[in-house]
What does this fold into?
Amino acid sequence: MTPQAGQKKGFRRNSAFPKGRPLDETAYSEVVGLLDGKSLAKDLLIEHLHILQDEFGCLHARHLRALGEHMRLSQAEVYEVASFYHHFDIVKEADAAPAPVTIRICDSISCSLRGADTIIEATKNAVDPAKVRIVHAPCMGACDHAPAAQIGKRPLFKVTEKSLLDAVETGNLKPDLPDYINLESYLEEGGYALLKKISDGTLTADQIIETLSQSGLRGLGGAGFPAGKKWTFVRSYDGPRMMTINGDEGEPGTFKDRYYLGKDPHRMIEGALIAARAVEAEAVYLYMRDEYPELLEILATEIKSLEKSGIIPADYFILRRGAGAYICGEESAMIESIEGKRGLPRHRPPYIAQVGLFGRPTLNHNVETVYWLRDILEKGAEWFTSQGQKNHPGFRSYSVSGRVKSPGVKLAPAGITLNELVSQYCNGMEDGHSLKGYLPGGASGGILPASLADEPLDFGTLEKHGSFVGSHAVVVLSDKDNIKDAVLNLMRFFEDESCGQCTPCRAGTEKMVQLLQSDNPDLDLVTELGDVMRDASICGLGQAAPNPVSHLFKYFREEL
Amino acid sequence: MSDQISFTLDNKTVTAEPGETIWQIAKRCGTTIPHLCHKDEKDYRPDGNCRACMVQIDGERILAASCIRTPTNGMKVTTDGERVEKSRAMVFELLTADMPAREESPDSGADFWLWAESMGISSSRLPKGEAPCQDITNPAIAVNLDACISCGLCVRACREVQVNDVIGMGGRGTFSYPVFDLHDDMGNSTCVTCGECVQACPTGALFEKSLMDDTSTTRIIKEVDKVVDSVCPYCGVGCLTKVSVKDDRIVQIDGRDGPANENRLCVKGRFGYDYAMNPERLIKPLIRRDDAPKSADAYLSHSDIKDVFREATWEEALDKAAGGLKTIHDRESGRSIAGFGSAKGSNEEAYLFQKFIRQGFGTNNVDHCTRLCHASSVAALLEGIGSGAVTAPFMAADDADCMIIIGARPAQNHPVAATYIKRAVKNGTKLVIIDPRRQELMRHADYSLQFKSGTDVALLNAMINTIISEGLTNDAYIAKNVEGFEALKTEISAFTPEEMAPICGIDAQTIREVARLYANSKNSIIYWGMGISQHVHGTDNARALIALALITGQIGRPGTGLHPLRGQNNVQGASDAGLIPMFYPDYQSVGDIEIREGYEKSWDKSLNPEKGLTVVEIIDDILAGGIKGMYVMGENPAMSDPDQNHARAALAKLEHLVVQDIFFTETAWHADVILPASVHAEKLGTYSNTNRQVQIGRPALAPPGEARQDWKIIVDLANRVGLDWQYADVPDVYAEMCTHMASLNNIPWERLEQDGTVTYPAKSLDKPGSEILFGEGFPTSNGKGRIVPTQLIPSDELPDDEYPFILTTGRLLEHWHTGAMTRRSEVLDAIEPEATVGVHPADIDRLGFSAGDMVSVETRRGVISLKSRADRSVTKGMLFIPFCFTEAPANFLTNPKLDPYGKIPEFKVAAARIRPQIADAAE
It folds into this structure.
């Protein structure tokens, strides 16, 4: 690759061309053709990269060069974004393009428990690498159907080596759409009437915020920030304001957003529009993860229907597609990604309520948070609060997976305990398994032992154990599971998904994996490293990454 | 002040300004917190990513990065203690784990190691990760990413400080590393080798090869003998430099915080210094052998010197040099003598040179390469606003709302000035670029007008027409400050955008939009270069620009004005010092009796009242039998003048040619006596940049061999033709200049010594000079700016069937002027090593050859052969050849036809044809 690389000053560039990669005229006209009629605004870089990746199955260097030329971006500006996201395959001139079919097999915790790693290896050995590429991938939000995979854009559940090879044979790379409530049906059952009431002034923003505050609805993406308070904050900053909806449900073990959007997408959209009205947002950006292709299709269709019906103006509710980066579930990283950049979390302060999308005050909500808005406003705050447990108002959607008989999204009272959740909602533990521990909040919340299975699961209740409920992704582990392996799985996930911005997380996750892998890890050093990651990382990823390790040392020391 | 913030820092109450970071406040209070990704220099945005500067804030769950955090009232911040120290130490340990050991690392003296040492960290308890491979494809910079800490300083250097946009942070997580373009080898990327990333890198992962071992892995030159504060020898930007010397060799140059560069440099300034130490330096005086006749078509090289010249003592050489000129003068008159001074020399050298010619020979035949660059601009400016210099520095971009760049390529020719322009665009300033050739800067522009070569007046008059017909003129300004507006109004009516569109190739709507943008913006500034001046209608081009500024009042305020970007380091100063045939210093006319009598009195000699001949006129005059003796100091007319067959014939015809230079230049091939002189890095002197900033260059090296200081050589020659010159030193010369030049009032040598740089005019000794001129009228007889309407004059030679291409010439980023210096710089010549002609890829296809094939390019005046370069920036039907390559001198092809006012030749347009050289390639 490097001609004469050993010589100190002997390298001579080819003076038949100006500096750098020459523009390939054919590639340029291909890019211009594919983007015909589309805006070339810089924030659309990721969208445009998707167009190229979808068309050519990868990103050829010649096309990246041409895209930069067309969008008036430098090659580095294009490359650094393209190389950040795992769903983009950059192919340099000397490299081979990836095989025409890609199978991504989830190896996050719930799928790993069900043998994903073995399936990955076996499938790799069974396919012709020229035709099929096997890639391991982080959580796909199908943990209740583990092990999960995706062939092209087609989700596959409970896969085996055989089922994957069969899927290759059938050649269907497109997702099936779930049976969901479309605009017509949603309108029939009274949808968007509430939004209309707000538009015509029958219901004021203050009234909505009042009800919302009474309901105690909290952000269901994981942080649990009271929604009413958030709206008040955002409204306190001068407009123009923006709204974003975070559909980047990447926390391993979480699949509730996918569940709700696959059933009733307009309930979420109406909620988002109500919230947007309340804070007078200029536009709503919905950031949907690329791992949910069926939802991307549904949402694109339904947003178009809404525009056609006149319920929303064109370019008001904007769908943006993620590209394979867990970190973009972090709200400021998501905003960076919507702006067409690498998904690096921002420093706080300022918070996004003050300086958010395109530098404007921004209200951001998780999909599920706004999903419940219509019900709360129609049925009243009391309807919601009454469905919780004592001191834990409201219900929660627990994504339960792992060693239970009936995994899935469980709508249960806030503050329910793990034991109650398993016995009352999941038909108990899987046969032959007894509870050893559980992840109360995906990868970040750590692993609690069976002895703490009677703790109420809610925001604020687990922090004393160095844990948190987060997105309510509950992964149940049994006596058949090795906790150290589980912790290593989680740490590798964090290493893979660290954005790389800050030292404690970028280097810390990598070193932590290496230390834990050794036969006789230096526990003091690991603890010291964990303390610094927690104390000095920029965002929650690095701060929470040591949690499972701490729990391993504290509750499962015998497994070391 | 109410917006000041009061908070507690390490138990002390401290007051902070809004926006001040905890890191800055701590430093101000005497505590420098460790830092890696934060560079405490202008324009470097803190990024808070390395986490080496963590501090504790009471009430916060986690630590905060002090470099990016600003305090709020009542906040309690602690910069030390176990928690923060443990955190910082772990960060260093994490990074050290993946680094080579200090002594094996690229720069053992890097900030990283200094901080690590201060914390007592030299190794790590943590396991080592994978290291990326080395990239040493750039001739000047080694990339050793095993030492990279992914702090992104190089990215900010490249993207935010220099705005070259070549480096990005690629990949993610553990694989986050700086990349060039699409993760290409640095040497194959669009990198312009400005070295800002090297200056910024805290670990040496990006480092100068000049300080490293043969494998470019570790630093071997660890300490330098001295660091000299100086100024860059190259373009007119005038960047201030720090020159590091070890064992009498320059080993490193860094940028200094000068007004025109604020620590930034370009590839020439940072890496192009080694010409000074090139073995081809002239180190002995040379006299032409009696058996070596002159020949117009001589083609010599350094190794041929001994065949044509013999070494001589200084005494003999000086006697012969002066004697030859004196003989011709005594036999005929001063009319037969001419001198070319240099825009590369100091002000003092320029002053002495013109004084030598005028006082010594009673002639005004003294000129220099400004004639080939901006003579027409200066002619139009003197005529229009009474001053030939810029009205505002290029940094006025900071205050501008709209910038027009026409006929200039600052990213190549004034790279550091271009950084100001690009940064202004990032801050929202609108940019219009008007240039027949595409340029990289157009990526940043709001309007890029690739108009037809040579139709500047059509385009500019259409803009003026729009402004007048749409009522966008500043009538109050015109009434107070402008004459000639009514005449312009009448004459301009024919130049509607619709009429001009087909002529200039820009549609009427765009012309109108650009005209409105310029006129309506609160502050608009115009930058121009040789695309304006090097035409037979160069003066008209500049007149049209002046008219634009005058009718809109876009002059005299911050963010407005007229800025011809001056090409050479001292072209402003050399012109100011009188190195031009019609003017004494400060543009005082040689024909003005009062002025002349003043000089006659102080120089004690009767002086010639006639204007002298200009550069191209002198060449013509030699062939016409007029001029017979010449003294050329640091100029290279055998490369720089148009129609080289003609020019070289003239030089060869001279009875006596004295060349004073540092190398055996193409001009020296025709010399009778060659006097070995000094390079910039060996001299003390002042230089005036394009912004009118007078700055001091200081010697870093001693001249090699017997080479001498230029000013002393001029003095020695002067004393040999009967003048009695007694100068103690350079400041002594400067002091004499000050007695003649009002522009240097209040800028005595001592002030320059102390401040390093002063802008003229300076109103008092203790106040900074005036950057923005003419807020209150112009230095003309009536105080008003004068509009001179212009008419369409076509280029002298237009393409036809026989010569169907338009040939245009110019410069490259890496090569300066005729290449005498830069071709002898290892780094610069490695990046652009050979002569090329830029051709649009479609023309290459059409003509049936391939990029890289050798071609011959021919005009009615000559033919050269060189390599073809497929270059989309060259419009179809156009050819571009840089004039710096001795193996294929573009000026064999150029048209010597002159602009009638500025006497500048039409370098920018010639009719040409191109043919592949198929003989060698044939099977």
